Amino acid sequence: MESEMDPLKVEILPDHQSSPYTFTKPKSNPKKSIILIIVASIVSFAITLGLLFVLAPVLLSGWTSSFRYSAVIDAGSSGSRIHVFRYWIKSGKPVFDFGAENYASLKLNPGLSAYADNPEEASVSVTELVEFAKGRIPKRSLKESDIMLMATAGMRLLDVNVQEQILEVTRRVLRSSGFKFQDEWARVISGSDEGIYAWVVANYAVGSLGSDPLQTTGIVELGGASAQVTFVSSENVPPEFSRTITYGNVSYTIYSHSFLHLGQNEAHQRLWESLHKSAANSTEDEIVTDPCTPKGYTYENNSQKHSSRILAEESRLTGSLQAFGNFSKCRSATFAMLQAGNENCPYKHCSIGSTYTPDLQGHFFATSNFYYTSTFFELHEKDWLAEMIPAGRRYCKEEWSKLKEKYPTTKEEYLLGYCFSTAYIISMLHDSLGFALNDGRIEFANKAGEKEIPLDWALGAFIVQTSREHTSDYSGKSRKMVGFMSNVAKFKV
Ligand SMILES: *[C@@H]1O[C@H](CO)[C@@H](O)[C@H](O)[C@H]1NC(C)=O
Ligand SMILES: *[C@@H]1O[C@H](CO)[C@@H](O)[C@H](O)[C@H]1NC(C)=O
Ligand SMILES: *[C@@H]1O[C@H](CO)[C@@H](O)[C@H](O)[C@H]1NC(C)=O
Ligand SMILES: *[C@@H]1O[C@H](CO)[C@@H](O)[C@H](O)[C@H]1NC(C)=O
Fold it and tell me: Which of 38, 91, 418, 472 is the residue whose CA sits 20 to 30 A from 354?
């Protein structure tokens, strides 16, 4: 079993890499050289013997060392990340391992949506990502390695024509990349696909894929432009929120929804916009306060220093808006945003806006920005939601200049977000979705399981796509591994 699970220890270097064993000419005396040669011979003999010993069971069992490779580009709102995977096939099924030898990723900022005004420029970052992947894949394997690009909320927010222009630029790069690629592999995926993929990788990581549906782990993810809620529900979920996944002979009916515009950056920007509007409307001696920004922060001065969309937006703010951090007020303001439209809820129950949400069931991981804010404040895994409130209260009421002194290495752009994010997290998870502050069922995480697999939806996308590919190869003799069905639309690769 050991040698099957761990064939990588005896990996032969991919042929595009130069040998790490470069010998320099010995400058020392001949005697020393002879000793060195003898020592080297003994060592290499021992290594050969060792290799044979390790390889023997592998060779005898007929296992052939053929790695496969695949790359997935997650084109998110704040940046694009390429994930490069190496896997292998055993008994007709793909075997995954997300350790450092088999998985690598690289992220480049900004996201593709930043090229809305100049789609052509998107090719530069995609080219760089492709080059990174090619550096990790042997040349001979490249044309059999899939490359896909899946864009999420940042792109979903753009006009369809603009989306398509940007995608077309990326397709041109991918077509000539040397990878196996089809045009439909570069696409904008739906928020619920994203949620389902995140659910798959989480349950794969903790080993619950294939077990009792009610023993699975749900995902709440706070992204930059959208937020996803995905979990197995035994309620009668309306079809537009329901997805079905099969793994082996187990079928999972999953509630999955992506709340567009309610990602952390997007929500923060919308709050700023509405404050700006009321400030612009206010009379000269009236001051509108921003409860989600620590006092002493001046809006006008920072616009040039940062390229982020949020800060660029600020340059348009008028002087009658004043930062005056107050956690309770910020919490109320964000709660109002999350509840907007709730009076029009057409379902039995809407936790956020007028969107159906079933009662919470099972265990949950809170990922992405939930994780980043929690680790920034060094919250404890157990009581993190309860601890978020005093942490946010202290942070929000602090002077901006003191915060900059206290966290000299943190980017200002991030520091500017933490008062808002603490309040937003509490109003989303506790005030809206109904997690108790001491609810042990929800933990923040960005990795899970013994192998600490990253809780990144792109890994789930890779698992689903690769499993499906190998299901069709062996459909005659082996059962389905991961099937993926939707009540709404057939999932298209
Ligand atoms: C799935 O099939 C296996 C045998 O192939 C069986 O042992 C197991 O109980 C089945 N699980 C469910 C949930 O039906
Ligand atoms: C701002 O003023 C305009 C008209 O002057 C009005 O229609 C709008 O409702 C006002 N907005 C706010 C937020 O007060
Ligand atoms: C911001 O700009 C104003 C004038 O434009 C200046 O008086 C003030 O000192 C600046 N503040 C900082 C922190 O640079
Ligand atoms: C923050 O706002 C709340 C509610 O409006 C108010 O009761 C409290 O006094 C404010 N805190 C500070 C420090 O101004």
Answer: 418
Atom of ligand 2 nearest to the CA of 274: 13
pLDDT digits (tens, 9 = 90+) for 240-288: 999 999 887 889 999 999 999 999 999 999 999 898 888 877 777 778 8
CATH of residue 363: 3.30.420.150
Q: Tell me the CATH number at 154.
A: 3.30.420.40
Q: Is residue 9 part of a domain?
A: no
- Residue from 216, 249, 251 to probe ligand 1 pocket by mutation (most atoms less than 8 Å from CB): 249
Ligand 4 centroid to residue 430 C-alpha, Å: 20
CA dist 284 and 268 (Å) reads 25
Tokens of 38: 């003898």
Last residue of a domain, one of 189, 206, 238: 189
Question: Which token pair is 227?
Answer: 């937020």
Ligand 3 center–CA 299 separation, angstroms:
10
Tell whether pTM > 0.85: no
Which residues constitute the domain of residue 83? Answer: 67-189
Mark the ranges of the chain whose per-residue pLDDT is less than 50: 1-28, 57-64, 302-308, 311-312, 315, 318, 473-481, 485-493
- Helix, strand or coil, per DSSP, at residue 247: strand
